[in-house]
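Lab notebook, bench 4. The sequencing result for the construct came back, and we need a structural model before the next group meeting so we can plan mutations. Quick request posted to the team channel:

Model the 3D structure of this chain.
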Amino acid sequence: MVWIKRLFLTVLMLALGLLLFVYVAWEPDRQLGELLPRWGDTPSSFVELDGMQVHIRDTGPRDDPQPIVIMHMRAGSLHAFDHWQKTLSKSRRVVSLDLPGFGLTGPNKDGNYKLEAYTRFLLRFLDTLGIRRVVLAGHALGGEVAWRTAVLAPDRVSRLILIDADGYQLPPLSQPVAFQIAQIRALRWISERVLPRWIVSNSLHNLYGNPDLITTDMVDRVFELNLRVGNRKALFQFMDQQESGSHQHLIRRVTQPTLVLWGEQDRLVPAEFAYRFCQDIPDCTLVRFPALGHKPHEEAPAASIQPVLRFLEKPLSNRR
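Done. Here's the predicted structure in C-alpha cell form:
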C-alpha cells in the first residue's frame, strides 16, 4: 500500500504544480483596441476581406506597375519587415500584411488555415487592392505562400524573394519550444489560455544567429500580438492542418526569377533547403548569410536588403 500512497502524492503534486503554472502563466486575450495604439500606428491601415479586417501597410509610389508584397512567418507579423519596407518604399510600392490567424488581422471565420486557403486568400487580396502583377517576398510560411501562389497563378507573379522559406519536410525537433508545446493535444486547453513570456523570449532567441540582438520591444511585439483575440486558437488550428513538405514537388514548377536568402545559423528551417530551392527552381540566385539565423531581414536588415535591391534592378526577360 505504500507505493499507492506514493503514487497518489506524486499525482497530487503534479496536479498542484500544473494548477500553479496555469495560475501564474494565465494570460487573457487582448482586444484589438488594446493593441492598436502600439502596433497599429501609421502607416497601418485595414482592408475588409473575407469577413476580416486585414492589417496592412501600403507605402511607396502608387504608379508602380509591379508592387512588392511581403509576407511574414507563422505567429509573426508585418512589423518584422519595417526596415525593408521603409527602404524599398523610396522607389517601389510595398504592401506588407498580417496573414489570417496572425498579428492584428486575427482569425478567419471558417478556421481554414491550409496553404491552399492562404494562396487563394492572397489572390483575392491582390484583387481587392487592384494589383494585377507583383513581386512576392515571403519569409518561412510567407515564403511557401509566395512560391505556391507563383505556381498557381504564374501570370500574377513576376519575381520571387524567398527568405528561409517553408516548402520541404521540416525536422520536428527543429521547432521552437512554444510550437512543440502547442502540438501536445493533451495540453491544448491550457495552451489556449496561457502564454508565458519566457517561452516567447526563448523561441525568439532560437531564431537569431546572435540572440543578444533580441530586444524587449521584439519580445513584447510577439507576445502581445499572439494574445490578440482568437490568435492562439488559430495557431493551433494552423498547426493541426499543416502537412510539411507535402507539396514540395510543386517547387519545380516555379518559373519566375527567384532570389533565395538564407541565414546559415537557422535552427528552424535547415540551411540545406536553400540549396534544394535553387536546385529545383531553374532561374534561382542564392545568397547566404553565415552569421545570421532564421530571420535575416530582421536580424541584419541593412545587410540582408542589399541583394534584394540588386535583384530588383535586374531587367526581366520578355517572357511572362
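The CA atoms of residues 215 and 303 lie 19 Å apart.
Will bring this to the meeting.
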